[in-house]
Amino acid sequence: MTEIDANIDGLVPAWLTLPDIAEELGVEVTRVRQLVKEGQLIAVRRGENSVLQVPAEFIKDGKVVKGLVGTLTLLRDDGFADDEMLEWLFTADDTLPGTPAQALRENRGTEVKRRAQALAV
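== Transcriptional regulator ==
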């Protein structure tokens, strides 16, 4: 959980606080904190009060977006820090098209994982 820099903050279209995520997922805030701790979600401190927030695109239809956890694991295994993962997920890739985060939301996780694996080479 790192402080967000302006570049990444500008890439991510919308953020949710941990209580917002808990409400979306229908779980307690402690469970959301556990998901962050386990690396299944990325939370960063942002805003005036340095509140922990998660990109809104990571949640869809009351669940963590399919393929996100596996993608985060691949990126982490490639040595990416949280801020680098966010930058990669929210930077447009013409070959997808769109951003990896958008592709995951559109159930194109195989393509995203293929690109994440290629980063390790």
